[in-house]
Amino acid sequence: MDKPTMFCRPTALLFLLLASISQAQTSVLTEGAKGDGTTDDTAAIEKAILAHGSVQFPRGTYRLTRTITIPLGETGFAALSGDGTARIVMAGAGPAFLFKGSHEGSAAPSSFKPLAWEKERTPMVSGIEIVGEHAEADAIEATGTMQITIARVVVRECRHAVHLTTRNRNVLIADCHFYHNKGIGVFLDNQNLHQINIVGSHISYNGGGGVVSRGGNVRNLHIGTCDIEGNHSTEGPPSANVELNSTGGSIGEVAITGCTMQHTSKAPGSANIRILGAGTDPSLERKLGRTHTREGNVTISANIFSDVRTNIEVRDSRGVVINGNTFWEGFEQDILAENCDHLVISNNNFDRNPRYAVNGFENAENNGLKLTRCSDTSLTGNVISGVWRQRAAVDVVEGSRLIISNNHILDSDGVGLRLEKVKNSLVSGNLIRDDREDEKKSKEASLMEIEGEGNQISGNLVDRK
């Protein structure tokens, strides 16, 4: 008889590891925390963290009235852990927990001081819930850290769930629920940060945005397999489920893959993804004659987008690839691109699926693609159907060196493909038809060129001249 085969799934290994870590940790109860929901446990929890670095929260509700700062150079390796049954109520302003490290370098090994590896690396938060009770309560803030890891954490009713400031490196956020906060789910705030992965999380109903990066210097941002929805306020300023705003800084080298993003079309200016690429480089005007960069190098692939004013908005950007996604319910439009170059929009499905006629919107969405002042851009292999109340399903203005080919542009109001002041571009192999009933069929031309120059337009199959 064969001997039993010993094996262990990765999930089981993870739980065994977490169990061993929990056994090595000090319970906050040993330093006097009560966890009864009424006692101010701030001092006791702070004492436990400063004394032991690694602490465990048993089942209970722990009340904080001010920020607990965790100076990693003093505490040594730090971890805050629970098994999912502990709740932290932040009743004061600012973050419940502020991790402070001293790392000032990059992710290159040569840039590290010994202190990073001896005491500060990989602070962790896992298995706890943080609930805000103060209007300016945040959950977790980190600055100067290396390899901070946040996993299986729930944050509700705070301002910001995770607030990354000044400088951090190699951030991991996984398996979290950031839900119904007044501000932002994950906020990269004028942050110098290279290498951050946000995966497998629900980031929803945060009024100021889902994942937001503004200013700073950000590279290697990965957002994958998350549900990111409803991160807009009908009363606040326009926001996005994912916002990359390079104003005053530089944001690039971003991958957004395998996510579902949706809601809320009722919020003015809402977008699923908003990329504002006009960054700042003091020497740029001297070198190139303009004051702003065009940031980018962003790939958006295999996502599901719906139910916002604009599904994807891209301005002043270079090197954005939008490939293999599914779009519907862009109430103003699906894609709005202005002042971009090296933009690739390929193999996407832009649809008005009758399945969603039951959602109460009564076909109020417009859909459609609008490209203005874009150059060196490719629009290929897309299926674009059911664009209503637009002057064109695909509206291209003042573009140059474009390739528009092998697209289906179907059953839409207005012109199918409209080209205005487009030059030196190739337009070929597109199928542009409207096969709706006569009373609904567009009376405009399938393909229209206005004031074009140097274009080659050939081999398109159209039903209206």
Automatic annotation (TrEMBL):
Q: Identify the stretch(es) annotated as Disordered.
A: 436-465
The cross-references to InterPro entries, in alphabetical order and at most eight, read: Beta_helix (IPR039448), PbH1 (IPR006626), Pectin_lyas_fold (IPR012334), Pectin_lyase_fold/virulence (IPR011050), RHGA/B-epi-like_pectate_lyase (IPR024535)
Biased composition regions of type Basic and acidic residues, renumbered to the chain = 436-446
For molecular function, the Gene Ontology terms on record are: ATP binding
Q: Which Gene3D superfamilies match?
A: Single-stranded right-handed beta-helix, Pectin lyase-like (2.160.20.10)
Record-annotated Right handed beta helix domain positions: 135-232, 361-462
Signal peptide stretch: 1-24
Keywords recorded for this protein, A-Z: ATP-binding, Nucleotide-binding, Signal
> In this protein, which residues make up the domain named Rhamnogalacturonase A/B/Epimerase-like pectate lyase?
26-91
Q: What is this protein called?
A: ATP-binding protein
Origin organism of this chain?
Answer: Brevifollis gellanilyticus
